[in-house]
User: What shape does this take?
Amino acid sequence: MRKEDKGVIIGQLTETLKEYGHFYLVDTTAMAAAETSDLRRKCFKNNIKLVVVKNTLLHKALLNSETDFSPLFDSLKGTTSVMFTEVANAPAKLLKEFKDGKPGLKAAYAEEGFYVGAEQLDALANIKSKNEVIADIVALLQSPAKNVISALQSGGNTIHGVLKTLGERPE
Assistant: This one.
């Protein structure tokens, strides 16, 4: 590969790192062609961009980035595929679907945190996406209002019942 081509690829990887907020480094070495095709299809359905890269080019792109990605450098060994995504937990949930540990998680950068090692997969899968957090906050904010409204409605019915009973009672 010519030096100019490498420069172009490094530039593209650097731009992709800026574009997507989260990425996973995955080892797809032990996967058969059919399994790799299945992984690519599932990535496409889940809006995950899967790219196979040379470790040296990815290392240089990580160095060019504004963020310090040095905790991920030790994971850049062997065959590396990168899963770029907007939703932090989407690739982790996808990787958990594969029962036999293929593809294997090497490391991840999600929600401005570093996750190194395959044992971090459960922690990554449990990260809530931005929309999930917003839904939880909205539900928490609505809960007290619903309680007040239901208390007022049930209290009104109770007070009405008490007043009606007192009004019907002979003096």
User: Anything to note?
Assistant: The chain is about 55% helix and 15% strand. The first strand starts at residue 22 and ends at 27. Strands lie at 22-27, 49-53, 80-85, 104-110, 113-116.
